[in-house]
Amino acid sequence: MSSHSFLFLDKEDGAISTLVIRGSTDNLMDDIERAIDDGVNSFKVLDARLCPGAGATEIELAKHITSYGESCPGLEQYAIKKYAEAFEVLPRALAENSGVKGNELISKLYAAHHEGNKNAGFDIEGRGKEAGILDPYLVKHWGIKLATNAAITVLRVDQVSFTIMWLFFKFLIPFMFINLGALLACYFLDYNVMCICQIIMAKPAGGPKAPKQQGHWDKDGWDEEPDKFDTHH
Predict the structure, then answer these.
(1) CB neighbours (10 Å) of residue 113?
(2) Alpha helices (runs of H) in the chain, residue ranges in sequence order
(3) What number of other Cβ atoms are within 10 A of residue 118's Cβ?
(4) Side-chain half-sphere of 100: how many Cα atoms within 13 Å?
């Protein structure tokens, strides 16, 4: 091929195949390589399992997670229920994009799932699973896992804010109360609080002195040096 020599060895059965890509430019070869890679990955199904689509899987997961949250004592149940509520986003988006009220659809889906219809999802024609609306299991699995990790990463930012607030209450607030206590002590001991404040704030700022003002332009000798102006009559 071209100026290169190749040696081909035939084998009856083998799990490895080689594809030779040829093109006039590197960009064209890159496009062909990406197209072949997409086709091979689409054909090669890593997991043949499927799950009901149209929001049925999300509603079923939300139902079980909510049930688990209700069995948990303390404040943990509220976080668990909010996590379950996040699964309602997908069927709600499908409904609102189709002109259907999201709240009504979510209520109907929950009612259907509580009755045992685990495959109940949103479909305009009302066929659901019978219409072949299915999602790959791996896509659903990794989508939920990655979204959960992203949410946890964002929520961890609050720990930094908590640290800042802890430093604020540990150092700044006591300092403010010390100053307030000193002023109250001066008040009850009949000290002049305003005098103390003036003493504290009366220290002038440093810096070079302002230059002396020159003579007025309308007077004789205004453009001379100040000492000469003072002696000029």
Answers:
(1) 19
(2) 26-43, 56-70, 76-86, 89-97, 102-114, 137-155, 157-167, 173-188, 193-201, 226-231
(3) 15
(4) 18
Alpha-carbon distances of 44 from 12, 32, 47, rounded to whole Å = 21, 18, 9
What gap in Å lies between CA 134 and CA 52, rounded to an integer? 5
Contacts of 127 (CB under 8 A, 6+ apart): 133
- Name 232's bridge partners: none
- For 52, phi then psi, to 5°, come to -60, 140
Architecture (CATH level 2) of domain 50-155? Orthogonal Bundle (1.10)
Q: Measure the CA–CA gap between 69 and 61, rounded to whole angstroms.
A: 12
Give the model confidence (pLDDT) of 182-220 as tens digits: 444 444 444 444 444 444 444 455 555 555 555 555 555
Helix 102-114 crosses helix 56-70 at what angle (to 10 degrees)? 70
pLDDT range class, residue 221, cuts 50, 70, 90: low
Kindly state the tokens that stand for 209. Answer: 């002195």
